[in-house]
Specification:
By secondary structure, the protein is an alpha+beta fold. The protein has eleven helices and nine strands. It folds into two domains: 2-80 and 206-274, Bordetella uptake gene, domain 1 (D-Maltodextrin-Binding Protein, domain 2); 83-197, D-Maltodextrin-Binding Protein, domain 2, CATH 3.40.190.10. The strands form two sheets. A five-stranded mixed sheet has the order 5-4-6-3-7, sandwiched between helices. Helix 6 (119-131) links the parallel strand 4 (109-113) and strand 5 (135-139). The mean pLDDT is 94.
């Protein structure tokens, strides 16, 4: 999120003719930062850049001091990216089908993610429940520790963003088995989707968006939406965002709201059905 925010901030500073400052407010999977935006003065000068955990937090974090849907207004959906299910190159899993067969045979398949309640964790829980598959979730505290153990073969499968995983695929340390988006990734065109591997309709994208206080005037939200859409069309900016693994989406605020609402609904069911708890 930090890199995406800084890429946008530099371009928006030029377009708006005023300094755009990026301030990191980490904690609670982004809920602390978004909470500060929800309660900020609604003058159109404070925005949040959020990641996919934003849609998971309402069902995962108890007693959040703000209402995600009522107190925050989506400005734009910046883009999406796949997560990648991968395995060490020396693994016996040559295809996603091998993983499915092992899970159906109850062979104690373990999958590492970047943490409890992460999108990768939830995606595998959704797939397991809908496909009748069994695996053991192994949570790590971030992509770095996960990749270290995945490369070393300490965990047989990893699920993480394409940005985290692809360098190790390129270095021939990990073998990609499937991506979680409904369409193949242009960065990994030969890697099948989960959906085309027998689970039609499966779609679990990582995503980035921009939000502001729900009390900000619609005209101001529309203006910022227009400026960010303009920024996303700048070749240098789109190239930098693509370097973060992002497929740019853009579009109007209503489209962002519809997308985020659907994500909130989808993952709320998965959290409840699987009794998933935050770290």
């Amino acid at each position: 999120m930090d890199q995406v925010a800084r890429i946008l901030a530099a371009q928006l500073t030029q377009q708006l003719g005023q300094t755009v400052i990026v301030e990191n407010k980490a904690g609670a999977s982004g809920a602390i930062g978004t909470g500060s935006v929800a309660t900020a003065t609604p003058d159109g000068y404070t925005y949040a850049v959020v990641f996919d955990t934003h849609a998971v937090n309402p069902s995962l974090i108890a007693n959040m001091p703000f209402d995600t849907r009522k107190d925050l207004a989506p400005v734009i959906l910046l883009g999406t990216a796949p997560m990648v299910l991968a395995t060490p190159v020396a693994s016996d899993y040559k295809t996603f089908g091998d993983v499915v067969a092992a899970a159906k045979a109850k062979k104690n398949v373990s999958v590492g993610s970047v943490g409890n309640g992460s999108l990768g964790h939830l995606a595998m829980a959704l797939l397991g429940r809908s496909g009748g598959l069994e695996w053991t979730h192994v949570p790590y505290k971030g992509g770095g520790p996960l990749m270290q153990d995945a490369i070393a073969g300490h965990v047989p499968l990893s699920i993480a963003s394409i940005v985290v995983t692809k360098p190790h695929i390129d270095a021939k340390r990990l073998r990609p088995l499937a991506v979680t988006t409904s369409k193949r990734s242009p960065d990994l065109p030969d890697v099948p989707t989960v959906a085309e591997s027998g689970y039609a309709g499966f779609d679990a994208p990582a995503w980035w968006g921009v939000l502001t206080s729900a009390k900000v005037l619609p005209a101001i939200v529309a203006r910022m939406n227009e400026e960010i859409n303009k920024a996303l069309k700048v070749p240098e900016i789109s190239a930098k965002l693509a370097g973060q693994g992002m497929t740019i989406v853009g579009g109007p605020p209503d489209a962002a709201r519809a997308f985020i609402d659907k994500q909130i609904e989808t993952w709320a069911v998965v959290v409840k059905d699987n009794n998933i708890k935050a770290d």
